[in-house]
């Protein structure tokens, strides 16, 4: 089992045709583009944490009922330096690396000794961001990498600090109705202050595009929020938006900046510089700001104007949740997520109805499933009118990996596309409809001849 997680995967840069069973909806045309760790050892060295692995991009191109798969390692500076040295020379979240002092290229690393903020990795393995017409691989440092979503080629390295003063930013930006990117980052000890900075990158500006100018140049700070602590800002993986507000939770899971600054000398990883600080607090009972009848979660406004939140546990063991993004920031009813039976293996995907607290599940023996991604049917009226895409790998070596396509309403299988090459367990991604590309169709058309395959749908109702 461990092998599926930690084995280094071969890239497959040339597209391979998948064997399709079932019927792919004719309207489904585009590229499912995903990201995740694919290489866990370099030479004799091994990463300590699964989140440290080198980014392996992969894609399923779906056109006229046919599916083509390809994968390619992100040629980050981190990847190139590691491969050149034949060992891990750039530190990641759970692995502190010690570069070869003889090589000038690594001299930057020694600035760790004299700078509070370390030089971070550009191994962007977490997510894909759409910014105007461009696509980027993202992680949680100040770096992100432009990529070609069709060939998976790595393009330029981008440093957020050129456009907005942040040392870290989430890998999970939001998009408003106009396609502008909204994100949040942390400025560490900047002019004597540590703050969270909310910023907006506009969708393509036509006159800029004519001149070949990136929308990044028009990045705009929306607001900044002072951290409660100069040297222990909160770690956050994402944030929320509504139609009128951005919701940021300064949770008591903190980064210890002094520990981070000395981690290199102390020989510990940055992961060890994160700690949960439980705050014992007697909440004054105030008015409940949550007015939804369908939840027992409460947000009590206290006398000191702070809000004390009490969650409602809807479902245990849920990871990688997605919704119909057209409902982001608005009232929504359905959550699609991976279900982890025993950590950290997702063996099911589920559709959860937060109104009725009921769920539908899809599972199959020996199958491990990726984040389920919702794609709406063109002209959809219902929130769940669309399909779910998930990548499935099997712990049974006889069973090839496949792209799973479910009807999002009934959670029944529509089709699957088997590929005869290695596929890795990934993290996040997005679907790019062909209409988002200037250049339209690229793959030949062919009738789908195979019949639908077996699937297992389990209906389940439970109370949270
Ligand atoms: Fe994530």
From TrEMBL:
Record has Metal-binding as a keyword: yes
Keyword check for Secreted: no
GO biological process, one term: carotene catabolic process
Cofactor binding note: Binds 1 Fe(2+) ion per subunit.
Binding site for Fe cation: 172, 237, 277, 428
Keywords (A to Z) from UniProt: Iron, Metal-binding
UniProt-annotated stretches for the region Disordered: 439-464
Compositionally biased region (Polar residues): 442-452
Gene Ontology molecular-function annotations: beta-carotene 15,15'-dioxygenase activity; carotenoid dioxygenase activity; metal ion binding
Cofactor or coenzyme needed: Fe(2+)
Family, as annotated: Belongs to the carotenoid oxygenase family.
Stated name of the protein: Beta,beta-carotene 15,15'-dioxygenase
Organism the protein comes from: Pteropus vampyrus
Organism taxonomic ancestry: Eukaryota, Metazoa, Chordata, Craniata, Vertebrata
Gene (name only): BCO1
